[in-house]
Amino acid sequence: MPAVSRRTLTLAVCGAIVVALLAVAALAPLPMSIVVPGLTANVLGADKGTPVITVSGAKTRPTSGQLRLVTVAATAPNASVHFSDVAKAWFSSDKAAMPRDSVYPSGNSVAEIQKANEKEMTDSQQDATTAALKHLGLSPSKVKVTLRLADVGGPSAGLLFTLGIIDKVDGDGHGGDLTGGRVIAGTGTIDGSGKVGAVGGVPLKEKAAVRDGATVFIVPRGECSDAKAALPGGLKLIPVTTLDNTLSALSALRAGQKTPTC
Predict the structure, then answer these.
(1) pTM over 0.90
(2) Is residue 179 within 8 Å of residue 136, measured between CB atoms?
(3) Count: domains in the chain
(4) Residue 69 lies in a domain
(5) Is 60 exceeded by the pLDDT of residue 167?
């Protein structure tokens, strides 16, 4: 048997080390989260038997159609995510692999993260109520709005809460539904002045919207690029920047007129 050269032996040892390192890397947990389309909720309806929006101190009206806020769901902050999970997400249109720090604040416990999400939701609801009442010309000292929605955190439902309050009280301003009877989904933060902000996760939220029957999707204009990248068939995009131009776009939609596009 011929002797094994030193070069061949060195290459074999190095190859074995590389294989071992790759095996360790494949099994080691990564600082990543896997994100998928989450739940949607009709803010004009009820959640677990309780109306999502309750208004007292002002006359309300029955509504039709739906205004669905949309969410994404992510692996728990303390869950182990491996290379195989990330690889599957890369090749899936229904999943995304994102740095964990972009999904959850770094260094916080599960309890702290949950508390932060709840605070963001509470602040978002307050801003949504302020923006809606300002648009309606109603005094917050006389009109009380209660928003109840379990299992949803963060600020991205703000715009849809605002639209829901307006639809419950005033509709389209002429006694008709703000939605025109459609199932409309959307996402976006809102501040008390009515400015709409970006949220992230739009492609997965679009999939959740279509899954639950939406034909129109309201998106912050700054996220048009992401919204168009993998737009599901049958879903019409309406980009917005403020509450006022959101309402104008919905008015145009009801009238069969041209609406803003990405």
Answers:
(1) no
(2) no
(3) 1
(4) yes
(5) yes
